[in-house]
Write a structure and sequence with these properties.
The protein is mostly beta strands. Helix content is about 5%, strand content about 40%. It contains three helices and 21 strands. The N terminus is likely disordered.
């Protein structure tokens, strides 16, 4: 988490019109964008590891610095099966764990810049709806992938964000570029809503008790819910009051859920016939031997599809219960 001293050294993001954006001017500024009272995007050095997009949902009753989930960037080169991992790779720019990410208003310029000098994002209008677009650059991966991510907020959809991966000419050709929500364990997501049934973490991995990741469970296009020409898949917790859960002794404080529960959903327009939804699971919290209250829960939650340059996926988080 960014320390108090570091926070004092930068200017917090400001409300500008209908958007929350980095403050104008020079000097260190907080890298945060989105809806003032809705979903927001942040980058390191905000709370959490490097190499991850941060998603904040203050409308769920969470403090300003408490994020709901991360999105990692995980490209797979053509002919390969192993992913690159934006969070886990060591940077070749400065030797620190986690690939460096920064923002620009012109994605054609790949030059690294200080994440504390963020681009403000571009406000535009399309089909009568105002949008805020933020281009997040990622340093090249060890597997030869060289990609960047475009995040888009819509004024009329305050609880969602669209993310799309773009491949540079310098990149290896790609089988896929997975944009995966990586922290389902914090919300203890355990139920996957499919087209005509639900799949639960306990039924998918009934005997798993290890401290690593359970194997991915995959669900093809024919098992996913349809919404017009789009497909959707949602993950939800199975507790009405997750903030009241009893945790095992030694569980770190940051794993204790805060706020009201939410439905987390991925949506894809015009899906490729080979698209799949995937989840894996954990029985203990990440880098911990502390069991997750209530048993195994989903951790990574994602849609995987053959790579399409600029193909957008939409992630949303809607409250499960009415807010007071």
């Amino acid at each position: 988490m960014a320390g108090d001293a570091e926070r004092r050294e930068w200017t917090e993001a400001v409300v500008d019109g209908r958007w929350l954006r980095p403050a104008p001017g020079d000097g260190p500024r907080e890298p945060r964008w989105g809806h003032p009272d809705g979903m927001q995007l942040g980058l390191h050095p905000l709370s959490g590891p490097r190499g991850l997009l941060r998603l904040y949902t203050p409308y769920l009753g969470q403090p300003r610095d408490r994020l709901l989930n991360f999105i990692a960037v995980e490209p797979i080169p053509s002919g390969a099966t192993e992913r690159g991992f934006s969070e886990l790779e060591r940077s070749r720019l400065d030797g620190v764990p986690g690939l460096r990410m920064w923002t620009v208003d012109d994605a054609a310029d790949p030059s690294p810049r200080d994440p504390r000098d963020p681009a403000r994002g571009v406000v535009s209008d399309a089909d009568g709806v105002e949008r805020l677009t933020v281009d997040v650059l990622v340093e090249p991966f060890a597997n030869g992938a060289d990609v960047w991510v475009r995040a888009v907020f819509r004024a009329d959809r305050p609880h969602e964000i669209s993310v799309a991966a773009y491949r540079r000419d310098s990149s290896a050709r790609l089988e896929a570029c997975v944009l995966t929500a990586t922290m389902g364990n914090w919300a203890r997501l355990r139920t996957l809503r499919l087209a005509d049934r639900e799949a639960t973490a306990g039924a998918l991995w009934p005997d798993y008790r290890d401290v690593h990741f359970a194997e991915h469970a995959r669900f093809g296009l024919d098992q996913l819910a349809r919404d017009g020409g789009a497909v959707t898949v949602s993950a939800i917790p199975d507790e009405a009051e997750p903030h009241l859960a009893e945790h095992a002794p030694g569980t770190r404080e940051h794993w204790r859920y805060v706020g009201i529960p939410a439905v987390q959903t991925w949506r894809a327009e015009d899906p490729d016939p080979r698209l799949v939804a995937q989840v894996n699971g954990r029985y203990t919290y990440w880098m911990s031997e502390a069991p997750i209250p209530g048993g195994i829960a989903f951790e990574n939650f994602e849609l995987v599809e053959p790579f399409r340059h600029g193909r957008a996926f939409t992630f949303s988080a809607e409250p499960l219960v009415a807010q007071p």
